[in-house]
């Protein structure tokens, strides 16, 4: 059966069941990554070559296993669908974002800060309602690209091995890709590989956001603002997303006790609770758009 039908099945499983309960394969992978980092980066003394070795040991064997399992007669297609389901985070994104918006609507700022803290790495303890809404909206736009669209893209490109390679690489970037004394050298490879794997998907996501919102503004923000952002992939996604929604994102944020002044993204009013929901609708709409275009291409080329 086709990868398009596999994509539809994987998305349907994610929407129906969400993340696997009780045990998630990425949790076990995280433990493996932690042990590899302890082995190859003791005390933060690992070099780039150690990071490359650790990345290869973590990612390549499991990608090969996925490729071999996908070839099994009868079971291969089902295993590919399960791999995509395990890699997607569409329902989970809503389960994290909607409680933040609901807490803001109820005026429970303490709960809103707590819930948005599950989504972002910045310090949320001193955020006002606007700051919480900004953090939540930014997280939905960026994580929609990382946790949904990029996984779907690599599944369509290379099936189970593609989505496994991407999801494991993205997980290592989240664990090792920091610019601090411990990971600056060791995590270099994980960060650069993740940048490469996200380059094309992030720009397709930015275009999708633009088409589903205020298109002209989104494209203008993408062109003018994205180059100012420190991430080559988050910049286009968040600038186009903010423009599509007609809100202003970016600005000051506290990471690890230090305030960072980030460039403005988008244009318009400060975000509110409803903009978290609108960002989530943008992600959901983008998934529907991708699947509709894939089905159209499947039918046309059949």
TrEMBL record:
Pathway: Cofactor biosynthesis; adenosylcobalamin biosynthesis. This is Cobalamin biosynthesis protein CobD. It is a multi-pass membrane protein. Keywords: Cell membrane, Cobalamin biosynthesis, Membrane, Transmembrane, Transmembrane helix. Converts cobyric acid to cobinamide by the addition of aminopropanol on the F carboxylic group. Pfam families: CobD_Cbib. Belongs to the CobD/CbiB family. The lineage of its organism: Bacteria, Pseudomonadati, Pseudomonadota, Gammaproteobacteria, Pseudomonadales. The keyword rRNA-binding does not apply. The chain crosses the membrane at residues 52-70, 147-166, 279-297. HAMAP family: CobD_CbiB (MF_00024). It is found in: Cell membrane.
């Amino acid at each position: 059966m086709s990868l398009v039908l596999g994509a539809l099945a994987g998305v349907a499983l994610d929407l129906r069941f969400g993340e696997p309960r009780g045990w998630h394969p990425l949790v076990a992978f995280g433990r493996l990554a932690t042990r590899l980092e302890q082995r190859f980066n003791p005390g933060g003394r690992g070099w780039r070559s150690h990071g490359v070795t650790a990345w290869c040991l973590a990612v390549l064997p499991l990608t090969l296993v996925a490729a071999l399992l996908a070839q099994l007669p009868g079971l291969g297609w089902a295993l590919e669908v399960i791999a995509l389901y395990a890699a997607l985070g569409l329902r989970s994104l809503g389960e994290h974002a909607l409680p933040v918006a609901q807490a803001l609507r109820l005026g429970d700022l303490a709960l809103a800060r707590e819930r948005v803290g599950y989504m972002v790495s910045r310090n949320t303890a001193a955020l006002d309602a606007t700051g919480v809404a900004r953090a939540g909206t930014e997280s939905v736009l960026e994580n929609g690209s990382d946790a949904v669209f990029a996984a779907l893209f690599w599944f369509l490109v290379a099936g189970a091995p593609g989505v496994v390679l991407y999801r494991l690489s993205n997980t290592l970037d989240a664990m090792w890709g920091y610019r601090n004394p411990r990971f600056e050298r060791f995590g270099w490879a994980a960060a650069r590989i993740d940048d490469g794997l996200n380059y094309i998907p992030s720009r397709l996501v930015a275009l999708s956001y633009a088409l589903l919102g205020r298109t002209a503004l989104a494209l203008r923000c993408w062109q003018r603002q994205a180059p100012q952002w420190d991430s080559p992939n988050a910049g286009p996604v968040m600038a186009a997303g903010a423009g599509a929604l007609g809100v202003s994102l970016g600005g000051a944020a506290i990471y690890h006790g230090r305030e960072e002044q980030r460039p403005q993204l988008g244009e318009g009013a400060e975000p509110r609770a409803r903009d978290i929901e609108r960002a989530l609708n943008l992600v959901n709409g983008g998934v529907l758009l991708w699947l509709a275009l894939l089905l159209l291409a499947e039918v046309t080329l059949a």
